[in-house]
Amino acid sequence: MPISQGAKYRLGRCARTFALPDEELPVVTRERTESAFGTVLLTIRVRRLGGQGDSVLGAPASARKYPEKQHRMKKWNEPSGRHAAKSSGRSAIRTGAAVLALVGLSFLGVSAFSTSPAEARGVADTVRSAAPAYSAVFTENFEHGTGVVDLDHYSGAGEQTYTADSGWLANCNGQIRSFNDSAHDNMGNCYPDEYSTSKLDQLAYALGIFDDPSGATAESNRALTAFTGANVDPGAGVELKTVGLASLHKGAGRFLGLSLESAAMNCDTGKKGPSYGFAFFDENGNQTSVGSGFEPCNVAGKSKVKVPANDQAGADTAYVARFASSGSILFTGSSVGLEILNGNGSGNGNDAAIDDIQIIDVTPVVSVSFSRPAAVVGHSVRLTYTVTNTSDYASKNGWSFTTSLPAGLNVASTPNVSSDCGSASVTAAAGSGQVSATADLGQGVASCTVSVDVTSASAGTYSLDPSTDTRLGLDASGVAGVRFVDVPLVSLVMGAVPVDANHDGLVDVGDSVGYSFTVTNDGNTSLSSVTVSESLVTGGVSCVARQT
């Protein structure tokens, strides 16, 4: 008959209790073998889920080895004093070897014990992205169309259009052109200033050489150019602004970065060059600064490019530099626009061109894993969130997530929260079903982790999918699962009560001995078909457990 959890059955006295260590949840097999006493023994063989070896429960004490496991064993209750001396003689009581046989043992509701170690390990397999590549959400290289075009009449990739302050759309400012465009025949808004038009072409050429030092495409490279003419100050202001916004297909709350290239001339004449600032703006017009004070004439690491003579302009030198945002911007909008401002409003100098603008999505990825695929009900498993940086390895500050654990899975009574993420703030209240964190990924950091212990009071498999979490500044990857299972824990106590028939105070020939056996289900699952066999008593003992 089944033995319910916590129930005791009157069967024995000397106890052996076999505990299954929490960290080595078993795959159980049973082996029927003959003991040295001719008794049929039932061996419960416990294979660790990781396949690291076996523990054997139920073998004789002399054969049992526990080099690294902890187990609990009550000592045999031996007679004391005069009774002890008498028992050691010829007619002494032979206590024998009681064998607890879990015949047809069934772990109710725990079919998972038949799972192979390989299958068990597979429960917690998690797909992760290691150093995921960043992706472009906006690109402009000014190569759409042909000929000379003013910025506010240009249509780029995806029909993207642009505008600027009026001073940057006149007097040789705001022209998209290349070295191949004849300065004499295609002056655009420079007319009649052929010299300034020639300088625009040289700026586009310098950017072409920067991209391709072989010069193969330098003459055809198109760029947004400015060489303020007619001694008119354009004024500090917007030099380029997107009219439409680029949609962030994965939604709001993304880490974005900006890169572009700029060439400047007249840097060595004492004239002040451009001083750029950059900002993203969202669908509501809210702006987020991306950087300021970028000066291609003065920035460290700029390249010096010699440009050939062109129409009215002789050979010259340009300085070219690439801007890349020093850190990633946590952008909360669902679509993004770009504004480029020039803080130098003077028409004296301030001669430059811009090319290869790119807004990139560099949102890191969060994945989850459990420290082991399965655990005993009531014990803890380590849940770890790994946040992996994109391949740019730029800083990503202020990301966050909130996980609602599946019903039945909770933060352990001792959460043991830890994190190696920068400025981490983790909330995981003991017994709750929620874990949340806000933290940073530092510049050059490949990944960081947030960990907490979780547990379950009931058997079952629990899965976590971070894509269902509330996330800010994080993508999600993979699904992880953990299985909590019931495990049997039984004890056998064997008792011997002698009846002194001749009242001589001794247990000797002619006296009788009453044996009792008590089996206790100390585990957290019901057992069935439990029997006790004792072969050393004349005629043997075989009984089925009955609840007391």
Nutshell version of this structure?
The chain is mainly beta and 548 residues long. The chain folds into 3 domains: 124 residues, no CATH class; 140 residues, Immunoglobulin-like (Sandwich), CATH 2.60.40; 227 residues, Jelly Rolls (Sandwich).
Structure report:
This protein is mainly beta and 548 residues long. The chain has three domains: 8-110 and 524-544, no CATH class; 118-134 and 363-485, Immunoglobulin-like; 135-361, Jelly Rolls, CATH 2.60.120.200. The chain has three helices and 38 strands. The strands form eight sheets. Strands 7, 8, 10, 11, 14, 17, 18, 19 and 21 form a nine-stranded antiparallel sheet that branches. A hairpin with an 8-residue loop joins strand 17 and strand 18 (316-324). The chain is rod-shaped.
Provide the descriptors you would attach to this structure in a database record.
disordered N terminus; Jelly Rolls; 9-stranded antiparallel sheet; mainly beta; 3 helices; 548 residues; rod-shaped; 6-stranded antiparallel sheet; single chain; Immunoglobulin-like
